[in-house]
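Hi all, long-time lurker, first post. I run a small reading group and we've been trying to get comfortable going from sequence to structure in the token notation. Rather than ask abstract questions, I figured I'd post a concrete chain and ask someone more experienced to write out its structure so we can walk through it together at our next meeting. Sequence below, copied exactly:
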Amino acid sequence: MATPPKRNNNSPPKVSVIIPAYRVAPFIHETLDSVLAQSFKDLEIIIINDGSPDTTELEDVLANYNGLIYLKQENKGAGAARNEGLRRARGEVVAFLDGDDIWYPDFLSEQLRLLESDGGYDLVYADATKFGDPEREGHTSMEESPSRGEVTFSSLLSGRCSVITSTVVARRQPIATVGLFDENFPNSQDFDLWLRLIRDGGARMTYQRKSLVGRRIYPGSLAADPIKSFGGELRVLEKVAARSDLTAHERATLERTVVERRATMAVIEGKRALLRGDFTSASSSFTQANRCFHSPKLILVLLGLKLAPRWLQRLEQRRTTTSHA
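-- Answer (accepted) --
Happy to help. Here is the structure in token form:
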């Protein structure tokens, strides 16, 4: 039976590991084993069952572990689950891990070293390597969304810096000070929190490009559905737009990001419409996207939809089949 390191109950751990669990029973043992295999040992593990329909299977797996802090709540979403973990956490530092992802053995030691470097940071993150989906196996999150330059409110807004939650190690107090995760967001509540930490909490953030996490991609996971991801980001950006304290530069960055996110969603929706043979919707979506991107490739796609839509559909079907082979 696997057991977290024994510790004096009167002595708080350095790190509280917070793991929300919803439909992750097939994966949670790998997640927990990766935490227990950490070279850094001064930690507690908090699992929050967010009203998961696979509770029986989940608890069967958890029965093989001693010393976990196991919490249950009705289904309220990942933000509410993480908040419950934060309220229970005793560590000065918290580390977030999704119940289907894994940490590499030196994740905590390397991230804690970065957290304390250069005068100290409030939040650090790293790169993650994808697995579980043959099309994206071995590729990293920063290959798709590279972080560039300093982490600022504007760089987070624009996507120049993109935080992967399962790679985050952060000081607990600044998160409490800005009000935890916003439970009104079904997803992207982490994006909202990072923005508030910098804008309202004055947090210092940085990252390393080294991959320290395995990020599982599979049907049904949020990471596998870019439409849900972008949709969540847009809801957060709408909240930011309602602020009255944005500078002219920040508001311009926000407006540009909203246009780009909607255009990217339109490309994805256009491809899906093309695959199902809805050429009118495909043309509308690609036209919308091209108003932002002014892309020669999109112009060729739109021309193909006019002259040979069935051929273009077969081409996209072949491309999709090949990429999933």
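A couple of things your group might point at:
The mean pLDDT is 93.
Residues 15-223 form a domain with the Spore Coat Polysaccharide Biosynthesis Protein SpsA; Chain A fold (CATH 3.90.550.10).
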